[in-house]
Amino acid sequence: MTALAHAVGHKHGSTSVLLVGGADVNVSDNKGRTVLMLVSKGSLDKELILAILEKVSDLNARDREGKTALMLAAKSNNSFLVERILSAGANPNFADEEGKTALMLAAESSCYSDVVQTLIDYHADVNSVDKKGKTALMFASNNVNYRVTQALIRNGANLHMKDEEGNTALMIAAMAPNGAVLQILIDSGAQVDVADNLGRTTLMYSTRNLYEEALQILLQFGANANTIDKEGNTALMFAADNPNEVVVQSLIKSGADVNVVNKDGKTALMLAAKENRNPKVVKALIDASADTNATDRDGKSAIDYASANENEAVLEVFNDE
């Protein structure tokens, strides 16, 4: 590491002295990071940043991870440097070793929307995909970043794109603790009942959520509670191990069939008895006429699984029936 790089990395006052002395800003350290890259993560005086920027010979230089100074500035939410690097001619669409662009890194790091908007203003491709097929919109959805999601949609982000596993931004948003991003995606035209490569729908993804807000929104917009995936599982089966009984109750109220059997011969009640320790979930299924005597391919019933689970509260529900 050069003296200048060390001074920048530690926000040392000798930075300006070294610059005046003609220190080379283009030399990289053992991680391939140039002085501009180190500046991207810090908070140096703006005049010093501009002085460094003027001496940079390659704005698109990459570190060992394939990241440019622009990517690092975007990831760090350094809006001043993002705009300055772009105005100096940096390419906003270069990707790192994982295929992530500056826009994806900005969306992924839960930055404010001004960095995202600046990148878009300089022609960042809102629909670029990384090596796993993920877009900036998917990263924003994962971070429950409402403002960034809005900015991306407003500037042409494709709501229907899928990653390599067949996931859409809506599926990712369905697992978030609140429904703000999910709501804006649906309001903007995202398809509710689309399925991934395993046949799993957005509603199924929402049942993994301990909070019921996403599920309620999807049901409100007509999500089909009885769609089955490639293994024969329904949303109710995925909800069977969720300790929040409201999730199961909401699906039942929306017409979910409690006695559907998957490819293993299991019903939602069997799965709940096997995995869930909340007796209210089991009771909700039984109250909805779930068959307590049905057996799976192994010849086991829901009561058998409850016994193996050694959950007295759940067993008590069966005994009360």
Automatic annotation (TrEMBL):
SUPFAM superfamilies: Ankyrin repeat. It comes from the Eukaryota. Pfam families: Ank, Ank_2. InterPro entries: Ankyrin_rpt, Ankyrin_rpt-contain_sf. The keyword Repeat applies. Keywords: ANK repeat, Repeat. ANK repeats lie at residues 65-97, 98-131, 132-164, 165-197, 198-230, 231-263, 264-297. The keyword Repeat applies. PANTHER family: ANKYRIN REPEAT DOMAIN-CONTAINING PROTEIN 39-RELATED. This is Uncharacterized protein. It comes from Exaiptasia diaphana.
